[in-house]
Amino acid sequence: MDTEMADQTPAINLGRAEGEKSSKSAQKKAEKQERLAAQKANKSATNTTKEASRSEARNAVSKPSKKLEGVELVGITVAREDDFSGWYQQVLTKGDFLDYYDISGCYILKPASYFIWKKIQAWFGDKIEKIGVDDCAFPLFVSEEVLNREKAHIEGFAAEVAWVTHAGKTPLEKKIAIRPTSETVMYPYYAKWIRSHRDLPLRLNQWNSVVRWEFKHPQPFLRTREFHWQEGHTAHLRQREAQTEVRQILEFYAGVYEQLLAVPVIRGRKTEKEKFAGADYTETVEGFISTTGRGIQGGTSHHLGQNFSNMFGITVEDPSGKEGEKKPPLNVFQNSWGLSTRTIGVMVMTHGDDRGLVVPPRVSRRQVVIVPVGITAKTSEQDRAALYEQVDALALVLKAADIRVETDLREGYSPGWKFNDWEQKGLPLRLEFGPKDAAAHQVTTSRRDIEGKGTIQISELATGVQGLLDTIQKDLYDRADEKFKSHVKKITNWDDFVPALNSKNVCLIPSCLTEKCEDEIKDLSARKEENDDTPQDERAPSMGAKSLCIPFDQPEGVVKGETACCNPQCKNKAEAWCLFGRSY
Ligand SMILES: [Zn+2]
């Protein structure tokens, strides 16, 4: 039986109300959620008359109008803290980011999440264009012979390569691989195109998707069989130039997380054990998921040295050779670097809450929604039309200021229902506008990321809204950063290591950075239920810790050749502080 599909089935929403197919406990949770939502809606509807607000709240959560039959009515039915992966599936599907597909490990990116990818493409694409990288498109397929040319490299992927063996019913003479990454696809042509040092640097990037047929449990955005990414591949005459670029790209990756997605990351270098197969070294940005206490690799930039140029014969004549002098050809220095839609998963896990997605304003498809409120059965058709006109006029003001705004004039849905709907989708800022707001020349504001309401005067609408969006973006980052920082523990005594992991931290320890030592740490920190003193906690992963990175920003306290490695089984001296953690 395909357990992967079984695991996923509950998240596939076929349009029935949640209660029909849920277990009793899920139903109870749903009921609790409804009560909370009703309380909240009641509390929040202060701008309308009390009578109207109560009926809205009832309509919002428990009394669907005819139109809503067959539509998902209940919000997120599992709490983030109770069942993180169940919560993750629900916020993605109910927040309209993603849908499941009938091939396990493959997912449909819906417009709201693909918009974020487009924003990342635009921002990062602009950065690399400015430093001289050009986009191109190489084929999806690679022949077996070429794929196998770089042994150390392909060993890292061999088990996950998907093969095309037939065209219709006819077997192919030679099977053809679908790229798991494009080093082997591109580098034969680098050898062909790079004839002289004047052809350097060659710096190309592709926005594409690649396939790695993983058998581990798939997770949307984080581990998928096909994923979208960019892969940059560059060739340089001098190693120093190449190494400078590795760091430059890493800084752009950090920028995608920090500036666009409001997600803090730690920059560092991978250990020998964790570096990219076939690279000299790998630099990385590492994120942190507080609910599970696990680290997550955010994006990696590799210096490949001359490993691939040796294998693929990418050489130039030595420009330092004098006229007539015969010098041996030089192998070029290469880099490759990639950032994938995993970014979106990290963003969701960082900011989302029990009400659904929370999307930072800079990447949200819709930044602001204006919802008309205070319309009751007694409101005349004329007054209603006038209010809607005013709402449209407000939207025009925001559009003119390049704010991505939507008006929600849907008929047959109460304001409370609309509030929940936009909250679930993570929309950063809601504006409410009713007769009382109109009389006071203001709009009522409600931020997705915090409780409570405010107001903005209509005369200052555009600047007020933009200011609030900027504040939301900054606050999201600051809160996540504070959380991350408070969960990085500096540890020098091994006895504190596993308890710190179990308390959902990642740990900086003095490390000798050898592979053997890392393997031992992984074994020593794996949770062994039978002799573990800590109380059973089904949420905590039982996996051992691996190294996440050697942070560039090294605290004081490790003296090379003096400080002991933290691993009690290791006799080596420490080289540096290394960040370890359970990870995705
Ligand atoms: Zn060691």
Automatic annotation (TrEMBL):
Transmembrane segments: none
Keyword field contains Nucleotide-binding: yes
Keyword Aminoacyl-tRNA synthetase applies: yes
GO cellular component, one term: cytoplasm
Segments forming domain Aminoacyl-transfer RNA synthetases class-II family profile: 105-360
Biased composition annotated in UniProt, kind: Basic and acidic residues: 17-37, 524-540
E.C. code: 6.1.1.15
GO molecular function terms noted in the UniProt entry: ATP binding; proline-tRNA ligase activity
Region named Disordered: 1-63, 524-543
Enzyme type, top EC level: ligase
BP-aspect Gene Ontology terms: prolyl-tRNA aminoacylation
Record's catalysed reaction(s): tRNA(Pro) + L-proline + ATP = L-prolyl-tRNA(Pro) + AMP + diphosphate
Residue stretches of biased makeup (Polar residues): 41-50
Keywords: Aminoacyl-tRNA synthetase, ATP-binding, Ligase, Nucleotide-binding, Protein biosynthesis
Record InterPro entries: aa-tRNA-synt_IIb (IPR002314), aa-tRNA-synth_II (IPR006195), aa-tRNA-synth_II/BPL/LPL (IPR045864), Anticodon-bd (IPR004154), Anticodon-bd_dom_sf (IPR036621), Pro-tRNA-ligase_IIa (IPR002316), Pro-tRNA-ligase_IIa_arc-type (IPR004499), Pro-tRNA_ligase_II_C (IPR016061)
Superkingdom, taxonomy of origin: Eukaryota
HAMAP family: Pro_tRNA_synth_type3 (MF_01571)
Family indicated by similarity: Belongs to the class-II aminoacyl-tRNA synthetase family.
NCBIfam families linked to this entry: proS_fam_I
Protein known as: proline--tRNA ligase
Highest classification ranks of the organism: Eukaryota, Fungi, Dikarya, Ascomycota, Pezizomycotina
